[in-house]
Amino acid sequence: MINPSSDISHSVSSLLEAPAAFAFSFMADPIALGGWSLGCMNTQPAGNGAVHTGFSLFDGRQAYFEIDADPQRMIVDYRLGVPGRMEPRISARVLSADVCGLRPDQCYVTLTAWRTKAMDDARWHGLCVTHEAEILLIKSQCERAWRTTGTSG
């Protein structure tokens, strides 16, 4: 089935005033995620290993995630779910300046989410508009980190 509408996946992109390698590091940082992910604020390690946890700004629910980062391709998969059953439902892709003819201190960042069969229309709509706000937070926070410290932390 081919579906060109946004009821299967949703993507948002932004031009960042930061180098691609820096933006990738920011997107792969689980603690930085706790500042821009409205569904998983104030992240912290959930024990041993790669699993982290945070809390939804909307309903206070605890969320779990782990990050699978591919620095060569500059893709970050965010695996969501419960420990032991994490699924890669959200990804970030960073495109470097040379790919798109940007200045060396610029890049594009795109967030993509995929809808599960269990998501009703209201929940899917909420996820889509949340990602539209989150890309603005990513832009602002990553650029501020680049300007002030040159690091993601």
Write the layout of secondary structure elements.
Blueprint: E1 9-16, H1 20-27, H2 30-36, E2 41-45, E3 52-55, E4 62-70, E5 75-82, E6 85-96, H3 97-100, E7 107-114, H4 121-148
Antiparallel strand pairs: 1-7, 2-3, 3-4, 4-5, 5-6, 6-7
Helix pairs in contact: 1-4
Q: Tell me what portion of residues adopts beta-strand conformation.
A: 35-45%
* Biggest β-sheet description: 7 strands, antiparallel
Query: How far is it from the N-terminal to the C-terminal residue, by CA?
Result: 43 Å
Overall geometry comes to globular
State Rg.
15 Å
The total beta strand count reads: 7
Spans of at least 5 consecutive residues whose pLDDT stays below 50 are: none
Please state how the strands of the largest beta sheet are arranged side by side: 1-7-6-5-4-3-2
Give the helices and strands as they follow along the chain: EHHEEEEEHEH
Percentage of helical residues?
25-40%
The total count of helices amounts to 4
Helical/strand content category: alpha+beta
Mean pLDDT: 93
Task: Sum this structure up briefly.
With 153 residues, the protein is of the alpha+beta class. Helices cover 31% and strands 35% of the residues. Helix 1 crosses helix 4 (121-148).
Structure overview:
This protein has 153 residues and is α+β, with helices and mostly antiparallel strands. Helix content is 31%, strand content 35%. The protein is built from 4 helices and 7 strands; from the N terminus they run βααβββββαβα. The protein has helices at 20-27, 30-36, 97-100, 121-148, and strands at 9-16, 41-45, 52-55, 62-70, 75-82, 85-96, 107-114. Strands 1-7-6-5-4-3-2 form a 7-stranded antiparallel beta sheet. Helix 1 (20-27) crosses helix 4 (121-148). It is globular.
